[in-house]
Amino acid sequence: MVIGSKRTLVFALLLQFAASLSAHAQSCSVTSASGNYGSVDILAGGAVDTTSTFTVTCSGCALGCTVNACVQFNQGAPNSSSSVRSLGSGANTAIHELYTDSGRTQVWGSWGYGTTAYGSGGVSINLSLPLLGGPAQQTLTVYGRFLANQQSTIPGTYVWSTASPVVAYAAYLLTSPNCSSNPGTTTNAGSSPWTATIAGNCIVSTTPLNFGNASLLTSNIDGVGTISVKCTNTTPYSIGLDNGLHASGSQRRMQAGSSFINYNLFTDAARSGAWTSTTSATTCTSGANTCVLGTGTALIQNVSVYGRVPPQTSPPPGAYADTIVVTVTF
User: Fold this and answer.
1) H-run or E-run covering 142
2) pLDDT tens, 277-293?
3) Final residue before a domain boundary, out of 198, 227, 249
4) Domains held by the chain: number
5) Do 118 and 110 touch, CB atoms closer than 8 A?
6) Which of 280, 278, 284, 241 is nearest to 263 (CA)?
7) Is the CB of residue 201 less than 8 Å from the CB of residue 232?
8) Is residue 15 part of a domain?
9) What pTM was estimated for this model as a whole?
């Protein structure tokens, strides 16, 4: 009889514990995990990394228990492809990705619980809840990367929208639920947008204009130089030239010691459009053909500079030179 009573007591305690676990339902919440890549130099072509942190909090076990939480990030929107995460700016997209590790080798995906599936799954954590149902929490870091080699992306403010992180959770006593099978209740952060700003930009380089050697300046001497411009896709730009270091009024001059040679720069091979400065990206402020206008393609665009030394009194022998400032307005 004593042994039987002990068995009955143990059985009753087990029933009471199970009833208590069921009567005090667990609940979990998750904070937003928004991210910002800042201003992306798209022409540089490199990756841009950032991080975001968020917290998973669970409570509700009066006698204490462990909660398994399956933390997921879905594909988000816009969905330009089932295999990538895209940020959007109107009809334009750029690609970024979220990872579980700082080396950015493991994509943080979703098993599809309470959201859409993406990749091979998310991250599983276990939270030990204390007696009397007090909360337990864990802060996690998600590692974002704006992917490299997207130079043709059109400037704009890009946003990736998602309700992630999404957490599927369940309490357990001995064996943790497997996140590869539905663990139970789900909750989400509501909104965790990620943003990137791509500003219009241009890069410029030049090759010298060389008039060669001459002994007498009795006829025109022509030369051609090159300006190489690379601007962001669809960005309008203009190229203006100043009058150089040794100008007399608007007349450009090359100098050697105290002597000068007059020369001129033109926008066309016929040397009819004198090249001047401009302050607008879309028009030549000194008149038609006084600058060069273009639209960026994210590729290098070469522009010729047509130079001419007109007939003039021949100066003393020497190496004559000048420096012109090239201004790209965009």
Assistant:
1) strand 136-146
2) 999 999 999 999 999 99
3) 198
4) 2
5) yes
6) 241
7) yes
8) no
9) 0.86
